[in-house]
DNA sequence: TTGTATGCGTTATCAT
DNA sequence: ATGATAACGCATACAA
């Protein structure tokens, strides 16, 4: 008990005792046991994050900022990969809930019914990220993928493009950008855009192959929206290989504004999302919730912007 | 107690009891408490990983494979960022040790004396990665950065290059590649190579700026070794901007073989390391150690290869 | 086949 | 200012 006090409330301890206990701690290499602490206090100082994949460069900035923000606030981060699969996410969720984290940060808002139930039943605070919905589980930090699809299609039309195409990954958020992109194009009087999907996570080489496939069927497209900068990079490479001039014959828009986007030839027009901001906000929100502190807003829309460069 | 048995050893439970308990579990949403389990059994099923940064694309494949490998084996991963700083690593280690993970995976072998002491005192199995040393703390999965520096210099000399330069990040491993690169160049009768360092983690833009700085002083260099593909990408961009032909006037070698390396113009010659293999091996080793199983080898050298493309 | 007692390391609470 | 007791949820050892 005295040791506990020395560590947690040294102010009311006799200096001599303090010194003696600290000496003992040093000489024995004593380190308190967080599991016992958590068991006794029902506070684990652990936050869990569920991500589709750790390698997706898009989420990376967010995780890094999240990890840093949590560390700064005295929390540790436990990560799980759902691999873009609902079943995997549900399994993971059970494991995670058994750890009794003080909070859970999810990527996206599309969870299985079972997953939603378990999360709500656990009573653990949840922050969903990288997406927007009217009915979040709890707190939400993200932006609208529908708005992205719509704005990109309007942007392309405003630049005089008429034959739109899209290369996307088969994950939920990319699909929603696609739906909105297509709907908006039709609303503006264009034909239904061409689409080609590749398995997530999409790699550069997928972009090359995908554009090749699209061009084989639809040589007349004049604008291409790629659901990631990596895909766009691949598309630029393929366009050059096929002698298609970008942007004269084909406008290309990416997603993510990864650090190579402005160095490509031509520099890539892309959708920029403030990943670190999402991570930092998520850290703030989840910790506030964990401490039972009130939150200004339950839904934070961080927005996005279209960074216009020479590929359009 | 019966609930515990239903969950962990259902074979000796009366079918009726089994059904009753399971129904109760379902209806109440009971999820076992890992902290209590850990406290009782001294086995947390938790592995901690310490990384310089989560965004370094180099380690990413390793972390992903590590996370996947651990999940497959029923372990969860807790991550911490040391930010290339010893002090931060030591702080982190204390937090980590207090969690009583069943194992710790470290990046690199350069830890502070204090850190080494704490790790050894904790008795927690440790796997060091991405480096090689004669005296690992425990298990090691990596490769020799000295060998990388040496082999790249030999490679460049064998291709007729005589005025070597290096652009590196100021992290330990990059520095060791540099020392060896320089030593080997001198041993081959060349002058001391030119070097320029940028703060880790190095970004593409740093590569541009660094090459500009090097060229301002040493216009006559004919070969450049960059300590990451991102830096090399930036260097290629700058070389083109300055009208320097690669590889005719300047050979460029990267490190990492990131997925864009073969798509650059010219395609980048680079050092390839099997990141996923390191992660998977680390998962295997740390779990074996955690279970007290014997290990074939304590030191695994996964090696590296120089992938020759058109930038040299 | 099921149940009871006990202790893992911590801290809230109540003595002293 | 310090110590004693109890309880967090689980699983080992033992009993029935």
TrEMBL record, chains A, B:
MF-aspect GO terms: DNA-binding transcription factor activity; transcription cis-regulatory region binding
Name of the protein: LacI family transcriptional regulator
Annotated keywords: DNA-binding, Transcription, Transcription regulation
UniProt-listed Gene3D superfamilies: 3.40.50.2300, lambda repressor-like DNA-binding domains
Pfam families: LacI, Peripla_BP_3
Upper classification of the organism: Bacteria, Pseudomonadati, Pseudomonadota, Betaproteobacteria, Burkholderiales
Domain named HTH lacI-type: residues: 1-41
């Amino acid at each position: 008990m005295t040791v506990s006090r020395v560590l947690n409330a040294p102010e009311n301890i006799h200096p001599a005792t303090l010194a003696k206990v600290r000496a003992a701690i040093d000489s024995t290499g004593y380190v308190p046991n967080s599991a016992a602490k958590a068991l006794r206090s029902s506070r684990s100082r652990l936050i869990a994050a569920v991500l589709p994949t750790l390698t997706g460069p898009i989420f990376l900035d967010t995780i890094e900022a999240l990890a840093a923000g949590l560390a700064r606030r005295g929390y540790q981060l436990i990560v799980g990969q759902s691999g873009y699969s609902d079943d995997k996410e549900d399994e993971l969720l059970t494991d995670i809930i058994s750890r009794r984290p003080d909070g859970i940060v999810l990527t996206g808002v599309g969870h299985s019914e079972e997953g939603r139930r378990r999360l709500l039943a656990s009573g653990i605070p949840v922050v969903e990220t990288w997406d927007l919905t009217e009915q979040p589980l709890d707190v939400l930090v993200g932006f609208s993928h529908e708005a992205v699809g719509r704005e990109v299609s309007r942007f392309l039309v405003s630049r005089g493009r008429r034959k739109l195409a899209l290369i996307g990954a088969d994950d939920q958020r990319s699909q929603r950008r696609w739906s909105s992109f297509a709907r908006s194009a039709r609303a503006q009087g264009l034909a239904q855009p061409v689409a080609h999907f590749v398995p997530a996570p999409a790699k550069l080489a997928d972009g090359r192959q995908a554009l090749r496939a699209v061009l084989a069927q639809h040589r007349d497209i004049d604008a291409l929206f790629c659901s990631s900068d990596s895909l766009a990079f691949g598309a630029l490479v393929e366009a050059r290989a096929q002698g298609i001039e970008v942007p004269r014959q084909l406008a290309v828009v990416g997603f993510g504004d990864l650090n190579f986007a402005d160095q490509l030839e031509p520099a890539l027009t892309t959708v920029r999302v403030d990943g670190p901001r999402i991570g930092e906000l998520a850290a703030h929100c989840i910790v506030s919730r964990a401490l039972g502190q009130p939150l200004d807003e339950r839904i934070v829309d961080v927005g996005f912007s279209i960074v216009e460069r020479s590929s359009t």
